[in-house]
Design goal:
- Three copies of one chain form a homotrimer.
- By secondary structure, chain A is α/β, with parallel strands linked by helices.
- Chain A has a domain at 4-52 and 97-153: DsrEFH-like (Hypothetical Protein Ychn, Chain: A), CATH 3.40.1260.
- In chain A, 38% of the residues lie in helices and 16% in strands.
- In chain A, strands 4-3-2-1-5 form a five-stranded parallel β-sheet, sandwiched between helices.
- In chain A, helix 1 (14-29) packs parallel to helix 4.
- Chains in contact: A-B, A-C, B-C.
- Chains B and C meet through helix 3, helix 5, helix 6 and strand 5 of B and helix 1, helix 2 and strand 5 of C.
- Chains A, B, C: Keywords: Membrane, Oxidoreductase, Transmembrane, Transmembrane helix.
- Chains A, B, C: InterPro entries: DsrE2-like, DsrEFH-like.
- Chains A, B, C: It holds the Pfam family DrsE_2.
- Chains A, B, C: It comes from Methylophaga frappieri (strain ATCC BAA-2434 / DSM 25690 / JAM7).
């Protein structure tokens, strides 16, 4: 029987964006049926313009090229710099970009579902999102999740 | 056979509070048996006075009415403003308040369990919490989770 | 049949470090087969020198001895103070240290797996890590997770 994986993606940051797309594309490569339900900030990951940022603020575990006190981390430009640095690192190491990973997910039939409640809440427009996604509610997703072999909230 | 859902709620912020209560009440409406284990900061969600805040700091994915650099986000009042804004948005859109959702959970027999270790750790008092909750440890909860169809760590 | 638990540990902070080690050691004590896959910042938890910090920034739910505005929280020393305070509290209350919990996990045959992609990404060296861990990729871990009774992303 086909294995199933259900992921709830709730984060919209650069470091929160990789795990759902990486895990779902890996699962699809293994022959799993995978669905991701994008809710709250996660909805940002379905936008056409996919350019999430990462912030070192409040995350003392983030590897920085030089140790940097919070007092400096709030300066304008640090967030952009940290995001650029992580993106460059990923590229240097040959990790696919988020946009590529997202396309791989779609091409391998991972269902990408926008949480309708969050769409309404944050006034997203349908033309903000990429093609090929679906819309749905928590109830429908939980029904799928209850049949899944792996359930993750990211 | 009744489906089961096991949630571990570890966050105490406004945006971290909605998912466990929303998912558990939805699951209960679908006829699932649902239990939430509140641990670490999540324990704040069982307090009588339920007024969690949300912070834009360290979360560049949070939709703000105007883009705001971190340098401004640390100013006194911004956190309170962001929390007020999100609460107002939820209300405008007809989303139930956290207190309402929590009551719906209790009324539909979602078991709300306070992690005893965290209660001791942060010196919470029993009269801090709402009525109708239970207390327990990780071992008991894992036994339930291992029988559940959906397991999520939020 | 032996129950199985699969945890993905993605955080490298003090408060993000306890849940995977606590849950996995509890599961092992219950006779479960447990594996933790350390990815992204979670990889910090496999380092020989295990001294994660916790930050109150961006987490308004963190219990502080005195309420402290974000404007003060960014001052040098506050993060170190919050980390020291939480560590002291845990010790006072008789909670095992992270290093102890990690050793308990290893001694009770919890498999600790370093995500190879993250090791390469952040240029970790093998001598940075404790002995007794293994290395692996997402595909192998998902295969295990799909057989597990409990799957959690922390």
């Amino acid at each position: 029987m086909t294995k199933k994986m259900a992921i709830i993606a709730s984060k919209g940051t650069l470091d929160g964006a990789y795990p759902p797309f990486l895990l779902a594309s890996t699962a699809a490569a293994l022959g799993f049926e995978a669905k991701i339900f994008f809710t709250f900030y996660g909805l940002q990951l379905l936008k056409k313009d996919l350019s999430p940022k990462v912030s070192p603020l409040g995350n003392p575990a983030m590897p920085m090229p030089v140790p940097m006190p919070n007092l400096l981390q709030i300066l304008p430009g640090v967030e952009a710099f940290a995001s650029w640095m992580m993106r460059r690192k990923l590229k240097q190491k040959g990790v696919a970009s988020l946009t590529e990973l997202r396309t791989i997910c779609l091409d391998s039939n991972v269902e990408l579902i926008a949480c309708q409640m969050t769409v309404d809440l944050f006034d997203f427009k349908n033309h903000d999102f990429i093609d090929g996604i679906s819309h749905g509610g928590a109830a429908t997703f939980l029904a799928f999740a209850s049949e899944a072999d792996i359930t993750l909230y990211i």
